Amino acid sequence: MTSVCRLFLIAGLSLALGACSIFGGGDDEARELEPRTTAIGVNGYLWQATLDTLSFMPITAADPAAAVIVTDWFSDPEVLNERVKLTVRFLSEALRSDGLKVTVVRQVRRDDTWVAAPVQAATALQIEEAILTRARTLRIDTNT
User: Fold this and answer.
1) Is the dihedral of CA 83, 2, 45, 14 positive or negative?
2) Beta partners for 43?
3) Measured distance CA(105)–CA(144) in Å, rounded
4) With the C-alpha atoms ordered 23, 28, 31, 35, is the resulting torsion angle positive or negative?
5) How far apart are the first and last CA of the chain?
6) By the 8 A CB rule, do 95 and 32 touch?
7) So which residues are the signal peptide here (predicted)?
8) What is the separation of C-alpha 108 from the centre of its chain, rounded to a whole number of angstroms?
């Protein structure tokens, strides 16, 4: 597992453990599906959760009108020969798992040149889950 994947996994697990009570059923589950569209045109919880989750990465574009957040290249200080770049697209105004899509691009350095490298399929899903968990926590904190 790459160090970047491990970093997102740790972040996601930390968020999930901190918000484990949000997975109960009942009225909370129904309210979770309700959109919380703000003046920015996307789900406010998902937008803020994405900014929070990716706060350790440099953001190059955060355009709510286009419903997209793009990071610049990020390298873990312990693994300087590898870097990643993320794009998060918001597909729905509802706080749901299909409300966003994360795309991860990974490069490795070979002979002083950055070349494309494969990304584990689970990496984007782990980042999406970390964002969703944070969004649910924000929603719960707002409603209490």
Assistant:
1) negative
2) 37
3) 38
4) negative
5) 38
6) yes
7) 1-24
8) 22
Q: What pTM was computed for the model?
A: 0.73
Percent of the chain exceeding pLDDT 70 equals: 72
CA 90 to chain CA centroid, Å, is 11
Q: Which strands make up the sheet holding 100-110, listed edge to edge?
A: 59-63, 68-71, 82-90, 100-110, 113-117
Closest CA to 33 of 96, 99, 100: 96
d(C-alpha 120, C-alpha 122), whole Å: 5
Q: Which two tokens stand for residue 107?
A: 């490069």
**71 in Cβ contact with 85 (< 8 Å):** yes
Cβ-proximal residues to 61 (8 Å cutoff; 6+ apart), any chain: 68, 69, 70
